[in-house]
Design goal:
By secondary structure, the protein is α/β, with parallel strands linked by helices. Helix content is 33%, strand content 24%.
Length: 294
């Protein structure tokens, strides 16, 4: 049902103030989780889901993000000369074909909805994905790939969903669910950052979306929502008002909020322990500093 999803938008215009002073000169998306920057995890997930066109919504000071995906011919030649083929292969995985990536500037921080709207002319009238690199999801099958497979049956709009503690609903877009069938949630409403007592559920929208181009038309109205920002959640909810379907998808995997320091540290430990070349040393160190750790 519907068209194939081949385009993804990556909103990366944020200043990363929670990671100052590091983000004074380094874009947050370039900060490394073990030995790969956050943005590489997002790109790899998109590729696994069949994405071939990548749109980055950036802002001032993000030049290093663009450079990261450029070729490094001198470095590649040096690795070849020294016979470091394993490192050469890793390096080449960061390269992007000419024309595969487009960069759009968001000149003012007006919200996630506005950032996505900035890419409207490149998206056109096709369904598209949105990936928030701050949300790193460790999964046997990448989260967006799970969603794309489900979307082929549902069409409409789809958002990744997970349960959060009721006290945390004011930090998320929250789903009002009318029916559940397996991993699919039939949604009848969405509320951005509700107080716990006003929240329709504790099912939060996480940073993976598959959206209809009608959502971009809804964003044309530039309606301000929670926090005085143009909210993507509100534009998706507007599709419900027009009788268009919205589904939540309970993904299989563990999500890390790498937009927070604690979440970034948790992800670092988890991904480090998952690496065969790092597991033993890291596990021994953790046992030495955490009494009773198995």
């Amino acid at each position: 049902m519907g068209n194939k999803v081949t385009t993804a938008i990556f909103p990366v215009a944020g200043m990363g103030t929670r990671f100052l002073p590091a983000t004074k000169s380094v874009p947050k998306e370039i900060m490394t989780l073990v030995d790969r920057p956050l943005i590489q995890y997002a790109i790899d997930e998109a590729r696994a889901a069949g994405i071939t066109e990548f749109i980055f919504v950036t802002s001032r000071g993000k030049g290093a993000l663009e450079d990261y995906f450029d070729l490094a011919p001198n470095l590649e030649e040096e690795l070849r000369r020294k016979g470091k083929d394993d490192l050469l292969e890793v390096l080449q995985q960061t390269n992007m074909d000419s024309g595969a990536i487009a960069y759009i500037r968001q000149h003012k921080a007006l919200g996630l909805g506005h950032a996505v709207w900035c890419a409207r002319r490149l998206v056109g009238d096709q369904p598209f994905a949105v990936i928030l690199p701050d949300d790193v999801i460790a999964a046997e099958k990448p989260c967006l790939q799970q969603m794309v497979e489900a979307y082929e049956e549902t069409g409409g709009n789809m958002v990744a969903a997970m349960e959060v503690h009721p006290d945390k609903t004011s930090s998320y877009g929250i789903l009002d669910v009318v029916n559940e069938e397996g991993n699919l949630l039939e949604v009848r409403g969405m509320v951005e950052k509700p107080k716990a007592e006003d929240s329709p559920s504790n099912l939060a929208v996480i940073g993976r979306y598959i959206l209809s181009p009608t959502v971009l038309k809804n964003l044309d109205e530039m309606k301000k929502g929670a926090g005085g920002e143009i909210q993507l959640t509100d534009a998706i909810a507007a599709d419900l008002d027009h009788g268009r379907k919205v589904h939540g998808y309970r993904f299989a995997g563990q999500r890390f909020d790498c937009g927070s320091k604690s979440g970034f540290l948790q992800a670092t430990v988890s991904y480090g322990l998952a690496r065969p070349d790092l597991r033993e040393d890291l596990a021994e160190y953790l046992k030495s500093i955490v009494p009773g750790l198995d």
